[in-house]
Amino acid sequence: MDVWSKTTPCLFPLAIHHHQQASDQDFNLFHSIDRKLYARIIRTLNRNPIESAQIMAFFIFLEREVRDFNLINKMLSLETPILKKLVDEAWMCFTFIESGMLLPNQNNVDIATLRDLVNDPGLTLIYFHRHRFQVSMELRKILDTVCWRAFNDVIAMHDKDRTKLSNEVMKVPQDDRTVFLTFSKGYPLKESEIVEFFTRYIFGDTVEELIMQEVGEEDQVLYAKMVVRRKSEMETIVRGHKAKYTINGKHVWARKYVKRQHQPFQR
User: Fold this and answer.
1) What does the radius of gyration of the chain's CA atoms come to, in whole angstroms?
2) Is residue 2 over pLDDT 80?
3) Is 162 helix (H, G, I), strand (E, B) or coil?
4) Residue 29: burial class (beta carbons within 10 Å; 0-12, 13-18, 19+)
5) Residue 18: is its pLDDT beyond 70?
6) Residue 8 gets which letter from DSSP?
7) Residue 133 to residue 129: CA distance in whole angstroms
8) How remote is the C-alpha of 161 from its chain's centroid?
């Protein structure tokens, strides 16, 4: 059934229980899948925690609206680039609903990834504009009764980790947190492929900077310098001395970067 094109839309058919009698432990256990996705959004995608909670409110709304209670669980298994598209589109929908303003080119603004997720061609920004008052009330209700309580400790831990990380970065010189990567000739890799791989390998926002070898337009990059946020992450990647990885079927070698005074690295 086309939920989005019905004359009388569903608009959150299942009530959200306030769980007033539930302990924090039981409440968090009940929302464990939501908490896992939220943690991935703020850590892997490096999104603002408050903004991410609003995005999660939209996903929870969507899950209940289309009556697919495995929706968020399915999102956990998605590759990071696809999840990023979903998060970007969800945030666009959320801000569109809350602002209530028509976009000048809204007919050309697509939320195709979200539409594919729910498998319904009727999911459009026009739908959300038409029902923005009802949807906005439901989103606020989800934020108040679910998100702020379920994600409170995750936000606190994230803030603590960021503070600790900032202090560590200030103490550890960049060269001591840098991995030197070399690639096989004839098997080129894109910067996005490298960042995506190591983000998933370490699980989190680990790559501070990736400096690729400067080459001509027709030439292949054969090495790169990857600065990570923690010295421990660098040691994990190089596995003590030198490590070999396969990124999308292409071999990559990683070792600790050693600065050479007479041969500066080309940016």
Assistant:
1) 22
2) no
3) helix
4) exposed
5) no
6) S
7) 8
8) 17
Q: Which long-range contacts (CB under 8 A, 24 or more apart) does 135-142 make?
A: 135/11, 135/61, 135/97, 136/97, 136/98, 138/11, 138/12, 138/61, 139/54, 139/57, 139/58, 139/61, 139/94, 139/97, 139/98, 141/16, 142/16, 142/57, 142/60, 142/61
The answer for 240, left when phi > 0, alpha when psi is -120 to 50, beta otherwise, is left
User: Which pTM does this prediction carry?
Assistant: 0.61
Distance CA 49, CA 37 (A): 12
**Per-residue pLDDT tens digits for 114-133:** 999 988 888 888 888 888 88
Mean pLDDT of 95-107: 65
CB 117 within 8 A of CB 78: no
Q: Could you read off the pLDDT of 37-49 as tens digits, one per residue? A: 999 999 888 888 8
